[in-house]
Amino acid sequence: MDESIFKDYEDEIQALEEEIRLLTEEYENIQQESAFFSDEDILKAIKSLQTEPQGETKGHVSLSDLKTQLESLEADLSFLMEFTGFHFTSHSKKTVEKTPNRTVQKHRLSGKCHSLPFQLEFQLLEMQNNEKVSSVVSDLSIIMESREDSNVSKFVSRTEEQGDLLTFFRSLSTYAEWYEHRRYTFLHFK
After folding, report:
1. Could you say which of 25, 49, 67, 137 is the most buried, measured as most Cβ atoms within 10 Å of its Cβ?
2. Which 8-state DSSP code applies to residue 73?
3. Other CB atoms within 10 Å distance of the CB of residue 120
4. Which positions are tagged coiled coil (predicted)?
5. Cα–Cα distance measured from residue 185 to residue 118, given in angstroms and rounded to the nearest whole number
6. What is the edge-to-edge ordering of all strands in the sheet holding 86-98?
7. Which of 121, 117, 113, 111 lies closest to 88 in space, CA to CA?
8. Tens of pLDDT along 53-92?
């Protein structure tokens, strides 16, 4: 009977250790993400939290204000999706390596640009020197249906070699927009 009690305690200890490990990892990710904000941004956020809106109790935000903010954010997001044509469906981030001056994260991103689906996988190396943070994209993998166009396959291969995400998104946006125009034009003549 004593052995079963010890076994239960050992199981509980292992579960708590696992929970501590996960919480520590989450805390480190949050700390790392907060490193991107300047001191000025942090002070502005603190001041905005310290100022108490009129007519509300301290620390509470009214439900109507939250709804208004949510509607505003949804409108902004909708505008950006219409303006750029990008609709992101999923994103995941996993920290692969973390040291005080260096962090390596693996990202997975999928979505559509107009009607063209895409998936990206890449590693992001972030190095911090003093107060400057530099980022490098590596191991870029782009999965995209190239349809009938071989130029898209060539572009994807070249972009993967260069690891240039900005060029990829700019070019994909332009290509997908004109792809839609061509598709509608050909449908009109059929």
Report:
1. 137
2. H
3. 21
4. 6-83
5. 23
6. 86-98, 102-113, 116-129, 132-144
7. 111
8. 554 444 567 888 888 888 888 888 888 888 888 888 888 8
